[in-house]
Amino acid sequence: MRLPILLLTLALPLLSQGQTADDIVKRYLDKIDGSKKWKDVKSMITKGEYDYGGIVFPFTTYAKAPSQYKFVVPFNGKYYAQGYDGNSGWKIDAFKNETTPTLLNGSQARAMANEADVELEIPFINYKAKGHQIKLEGRDTLDGKQFYIITLLKSGGEKETYYFHSTTYSLYLKKSIAKNIELEKALLDT
C-alpha cells in the first residue's frame, strides 16, 4: 500500500508542472465564482503602489461604471488627485501647492478618459471573446509563497502581469503600466 502512495506523492509535483494558463485562469474564476457575481459589480476601489522613477508611492483608485474614475496619491501629508466624470477630466496637485481643480485638455484629457475606461468585469472572464490572450510565464516566489505568473495581452495591445497563488489560485498581485500620461508610464502594482 505504501508504494502507490509514494508514487502519487512523487507524481504530484510533476502533475502541477503541467498546468496551462487556461487551467490556472479557470481555477481562479471558479474560486471567485466566475462571472456570476461580477455582473453585479458597479463600483470598485483598488489600492496599490506605483514606481515613479525609483520612488514608490501608494495610490487608491475609485471607479464607477460606466466611466467615472478618481485616482489619489497621498504622500507626506500632501496628495495628487485626478478624476473623470464621463465627460471631462480634472486634477489637483497639492505637491505643487494647487488647491483647486485644473481642467484637463488635449492629451491629458484623453489620458484620463483612457484611465477612466472602467472595466469592472475582470479581463479573464470571456477573455478569448474579448480578443485577449494569456500566457503562462512560469513560477516565482514572493513573500515566501509560490505563484504562477500569467501575462495577459489585451486586444488593444496593453500587457498586464498577474501572480496567482500556486495552490489556492488566489490573485495576489497585478503589474501593469499606467495609461495616464501624467504618470509617465509608471509601473503599477495592485
Features of the shown structure:
190 residues, alpha+beta, Nuclear Transport Factor 2, Chain: A, disordered N terminus, signal, Outer membrane lipoprotein carrier protein LolA
What are the SSEs and their pairings?
Blueprint: H1 2-17, H2 21-31, E1 43-52, E2 55-64, E3 68-75, E4 78-84, E5 89-93, E6 102-104, H3 106-115, E7 133-142, E8 145-153, E9 159-165, E10 171-177, E11 187-189
Rg, nearest Å: 20 Å
> What general outline do the C-alpha atoms trace?
globular
Show unreliable segments: 1-16
Distance between the termini: 47 Å
Percent of residues in β-strands: 35-45%
Number of strands: 11
The computed structural class is: alpha+beta
SSE order, one letter for each helix or strand = HHEEEEEEHEEEEE
Largest sheet: 11 strands, antiparallel
How much helix is in the residues? 10-25%
Mean pLDDT: 79
Query: How many domain units?
Result: 2
Q: How is the largest sheet built, in terms of strand order?
A: 6-5-4-3-2-1-11-10-9-8-7
Helix count from the secondary structure assignment: 3
